Amino acid sequence: MNTKKTGYGEQPYEKPTKRYCQTLDLKDDPQLIAEYKKRHSPAHYWKEIGEGLRAVGILDMEIYIHENHLFMIVETPLDFDWDTAFRKLATLPRQQEWERYMSVFQDADAEASSEEKWTLMEQMFSLSKAME
Questions:
Q1: Alpha carbon distance 39, 98 (integer Å)
Q2: What single-letter DSSP state applies at residue 26?
Q3: What's the pTM?
Q4: What would the CATH number be for the domain defined by 17-121?
């Protein structure tokens, strides 16, 4: 899907938010990548996982893909505490099962939690901050 003309819309929130950006690589296998994408489609995604993400305070989560590289944006309220939320998330229904289910595709330790697999990225540039 070419989005250079349309871009991706952003969800407006009534309160200030912050975002976390993370990266993870998939196994470099076109069939596995296609299956990974399928399992994240609305028809195959486990609703309990989304409910768990919302229950720990995550407002929105987006995953982008280029070849076998994933980039995730997690949007949260300003008072969101990452460590507390992900400790709680790991205990919620089906979360560990989902992690095992996804580990087949990911170039990461199959026993690792979501927090352990995804690498938090460092922001190195912000146009709005640079223009202050």
A1: 10
A2: B
A3: 0.90
A4: 3.30.70.100
